[in-house]
Structure formats: structure tokens, C-alpha cells
Amino acid sequence: MAHVQRNIAIKAPIEKVFNYITDPMSSEEWSPGLEKITGVIGSGVGRRDKWEYKMAGMKFNGESVVKELNPPDRYVLESVAGIISKWVFVLEKYYDGDTKLNLDIEYTIPVPILGKLAERAILGQNEKVADQIMNNIKTKMER
């Protein structure tokens, strides 16, 4: 599995950031490549949704499940179909009511589809995508 870790300070209350990142429909705003979220079923732990994601010019369809939801500190989302991944968001109260957002992503690239040479390029691209994710959340929350 590939692994990416990022953190960023956000000038917004922890509850606001937590509510934003845990809303499945907002993920289309902050996650580059995520084209569509549909079929949201349930709420809280066990909530499921279907997604369409574009990587390396190819579309992937998958399904995610909320595995942990501990407001306002921790949110864990696992993709159980499509691109298998685990997203762990940990939020901390930071200076003067701000929030430190930590993101840890583990994922498996569908290597048989892309090939080993493309895998290296995708890993580098996904590092940049992780930076975009954090900056997109920060920008939205600081408006």
C-alpha cells in the first residue's frame, strides 16, 4: 500500500472543520479527482456512499464506509470497492481556536490496470493531490 501524510493549520474552529470534512457531499469540493458522490446511505459509523474518481485519465468507481466518527477529533473512512484506501483525519485544537488537521491516507493503486511504470508517476501525482486536498479544505474553511 502507498502512504501519504499531511497536516495543516486552519484558522477555523475545530467543529466547523470536522462538520465540513465529514459531509460526504462536500468532499467533491475539496478532493481533486473526485467527480461524483452518490447513493449515500445512513449516517454516522456505517454510513456508505458510492463514488466516481478520476486518476491518470481513467475513471474508477468505488464505495466507501465510515469506520470511525468521534466528533470533533477523528474521522476514518475506508474505500471497500474500487481503489482500496483508508483515510484517517485527526483534528486538534490549535492556537487561539484554530484547528490543526492531520490526514493519513493508505491506498492501493490498481497496478494490473496501470502497470509498474505508471505506478511511480501516480505515486508522485497523489502526493501533490494530498497537498491540494489540505489547501482546498483550508481555503474553504477560512472564508
Automatic annotation (TrEMBL):
State the Pfam families in the record: Polyketide_cyc2 (PF10604)
Cross-referenced SUPFAM superfamilies: Bet v1-like
* InterPro entries (UniProt xref): Polyketide_cyclase/dehydratase, START-like_dom_sf
Which CDD domains does the UniProt record give? SRPBCC
Protein name as it appears in the record: SRPBCC family protein
Query: From which organism does this entry originate?
Result: Candidatus Zymogenus saltonus
